[in-house]
Design brief:
disordered N terminus, 3-stranded antiparallel beta sheet, Glucose Oxidase, domain 1, 8-stranded mixed beta sheet, 29% helix
Length: 234
């Protein structure tokens, strides 16, 4: 029997759920809270980024495969400004999300309209950064998710420069590596380790199904305590 959960098809066979093999298509039908819950249950209890990292654009959901970068504060214009930032964009492929440790720098804008345009053209699905953007006047008209900590008109040249791409990073205490998966929405951002992705997505789809049942029972007036005792979901 084919069912659809939050717009994602799943197959219920003998009580088990099997899913399409593409993690990104599954993430599109999930939400950050349910993924964070199942990761907690799997022992991955430090996978949510700082609450200050939020959607800055009308495109308020981002999901895809992680490509990492680190940007550090600089005091002068480098000999080759933007070199690794451009290299990161050139190396990313369709389905990637750029995840940048920018040290919560608010002195300049790491991101903007033109970089978003380049990424969108090659199928990159968004950016998540502990830094700022600019050009919101244009980004607000683009269907490209930009998650960060704020906005400022100041250019990053001579203020913030990429020093590493593709290597593992520690972003807000969350270990993130290229090839992991990421999901961000209005609640925040959660990182799914690549080695745990299959199981986490399977459990998340099952939890969505359970939450749908719980929601129906609560709406019908069943007590919260009774519903929790029955399903263990709240």
């Amino acid at each position: 029997m084919i069912r659809v959960l939050h717009g994602v098809p799943v197959w219920a066979l003998n009580g088990f759920i099997t899913m399409d093999s593409d993690p990104i298509s599954l993430l599109e039908g999930l939400y950050s809270a349910v993924v964070a819950d199942v990761l907690d249950g799997m022992g991955y209890r430090h996978q949510c980024l700082n609450a200050s990292i939020r959607a800055l654009t009308p495109a308020t959901k981002v999901c895809g495969r992680v490509f990492t970068a680190v940007a550090e504060t600089v005091e002068e214009i480098p000999a080759e400004p933007y070199k690794l930032e451009m290299a990161a964009i050139d190396q990313m492929v369709r389905g990637d999300v750029l995840v940048v440790d920018a040290g919560h720098n608010t002195a300049s804008a790491f991101w903007g309209e033109l970089l978003s345009t380049a990424c969108k053209a090659k199928g990159v699905r968004g950016i998540v950064m502990s830094g700022c953007t600019r050009d919101l006047w244009a980004l607000n008209r683009m269907d490209f998710p930009v998650f960060g900590i704020g906005a400022t008109p100041a250019d990053s040249k001579g203020r913030l420069d990429v020093v590493s791409i593709g290597a593992p990073i520690a972003l807000d205490g969350v270990m993130v590596k290229s090839g992991d998966y990421i999901l961000g929405d209005l609640d925040g951002v959660v990182v799914i380790p690549s080695e745990a992705a299959d199981e986490a997505l399977r459990l998340a789809m099952e939890k969505v199904s359970g939450e749908n049942t719980v929601r129906d029972e609560l709406a019908a007036g069943v007590s919260v305590a009774e519903v929790f005792a029955k399903h263990g979901i709240l």
